[in-house]
Known about the structure:
Number of strands: 3
Mean pLDDT: 80
CATH topology of the domain at 27-106: GCC-box Binding Domain
Distance between the termini: 37 Å
Oligomer: single chain
Largest sheet: 3 strands, antiparallel
Strand order of the largest sheet: 1-2-3
Low-confidence stretches: 99-104
Helix content: 25-40%
Amino acid sequence: MAKAIRENPKTVAQMGKKAQFKQTEGVNVAAATKLRSTNRSGVIGVSFDRQSGKWNARLFMKGRLLLNKQFVNFDEAVRARHQAEKEFLEPLIARVNDVAPCDVPVNSQPVRRQTRASAN
Length: 120
């Protein structure tokens, strides 16, 4: 795999160019704003803890957990995550993109994914 990457002319042409990376103040914005394929809740930063039977809402930025709370209700966890995004992520994205923060949270519409148990 590594050999195939090194031999790809498009990849080789981009290697070593700093301009291809946005300045994001040391924050991986993609990880904080894009839904991973392994996400089962449908909302970034919200997960279900089977042991406690509660929903966790988390936001990790610049090596610190800015939000780490548990909720009985899924919707409360989503609201807490969106509020943390408004408070911490939107100002960062606005500084990076040189635009004003928007009124809608980054993940405005939670999408519940089917679990294996509910699919059968």
